[in-house]
Specification:
The structure is a single chain. By secondary structure, the protein is α/β, with parallel strands linked by helices. Helix content is about 35%, strand content about 15%. The protein has 17 helices and 14 strands. The chain has helices at about 5-15, 30-40, 50-55, 115-125, 175-190, 210-225, 245-255, 260-270, 280-290, 310-315, 325-335, 340-345, 360-365, 370-380, 400-405, 450, 455-465; strands at about 55, 70-80, 85-90, 105-110, 125-130, 135-140, 150-155, 160-165, 200-205, 230-235, 385-390, 410-420, 425-435, 435-440. The strands form two sheets. Strands 1, 2, 3, 4, 7, 8, 9, 10, 11, 12, 13 and 14 form a twelve-stranded mixed beta sheet that branches. Strands 5-6 form a two-stranded antiparallel ribbon. Helix 6 (about 210-225) runs parallel beside helix 14 (about 370-380).
Amino acid sequence: MAYTTFFILSSFLFLSMIAAPAASISDENAWSTAESLYQQLGKQVIAQTGSKEKDLVAALPGQPAGNVSFAQYAGYVAVDPAGSRNLFYYFVEAATDPESKPLVWWFDGGAGTSAFGFGALQANGPFHVDQSGESLVSNPYSWNKVANMLYVETPFGVGFSYSTNQSDFATMGDNSTTVDNFQFLANWLERFPEYKSGDLYLAGQNAGNFVSQLAELIIFYNNKTGSSINLKGIILGNPSIDDLEDARGRFIFHAGHGILSDHIIRLVDKKCNCLGCWNSSTCKRVLELSRPKAFSYNLKDVYDLPCQEPAYVSSVYNDPMTMYTCAKSLTTNYVNKPEVQTALHVNKGAWNWEAFNMDLEGKFNQSYKSIVPTLRNVMAGGCPIWIYSGDLDSRNPVTSTMYSLRLLRLKEKTPWYGWYITPFELAGYVMEYEEKLTFITIRGAGHSVVDKQPERGLLVFTSIIQGQNLPKSPFLHY
């Protein structure tokens, strides 16, 4: 790559040094969005038709035979007084001693992505859909080994969540979703009061906006009302943090992995080689050209194939290195079985469940291009942040996260070091900052870390929940 572009990119380290510091909660300007959302909350406790007893799931169809040591629940929580907006949830208690374990609310990002379909049934839940699409298998790396896991299909329009008021779609966006998510939490805790005083973590995959904005509102709400929703931290997996830095980091990642031609690299070098140029319309157009074409490779894992159904499923689905590339259609088949929807207490009607609602992306009218100000507020509120990235993801690559983190003006606490599964098996790298932010890379993982590296993903999650450092090699350093 031409040296000029690398010089310009590295020069942004200087700009990050003069970025605005985290604002205290008393800074009204910095917290104006949270104040506005707080004013929209209205009545927190809303009349519900569901109950904990009604929501108990006896067993999911095709669930592995034998005793399951944890309880499962599924149902709806209304998030507005009229009961028109209803969010669907699936909840699994921790496999052992749930009373002593924290509650983790798991999000999946992209406005139309189902946390139940992707999070629970394909990623970190206790069961995965098998290769027939008809039954379930146990997940030996389930995150409910260390926490109570709550999966919510949010916003309405995702999965089984819905609104009976079509005008709600006209105003949906980041802000309205944050208000609905807060209302969901307040009312779900009324249904499960044993978790009210326990520790709460917000976590998600590619869901930096949903997770950080709800955390910001919780912090503001606690400060304003004297309440104590016990938010212990937020966990962001391969998040999109800042649109401009995402584009910059994505270009560097693609160029460094031999995906871009020399012509494209030279074109970017020519059009984006000044500090102010990266935000210009010309540079942005060139950066769009530098994005590889769809299906040329797997955007979520540069060394994996894109899904080529149905032959791909039958030939490689059992290969652990490519296990979940085509899992979406299998999950869709399973969730749309009538007996599955009955077991999940899905509201009656003709449901054609989708793992991802593409139409919802176009209806999402308001979304922030950067969550950097939100992350500053979360840190100012004393809430720890963990960010982890699979180093093979090209959608929200490690380089994009690194560039975005510079904008936060963080102070290094623990220098970059390698962490290990075994003394000689490098699993990734860790960087810790004084502001209670920890950045972790996971070697050999893509956009969804647990697809190819479920053991490493569980180890990272366990270290966060249990307050432990990731293991260093006793023999190797850096």
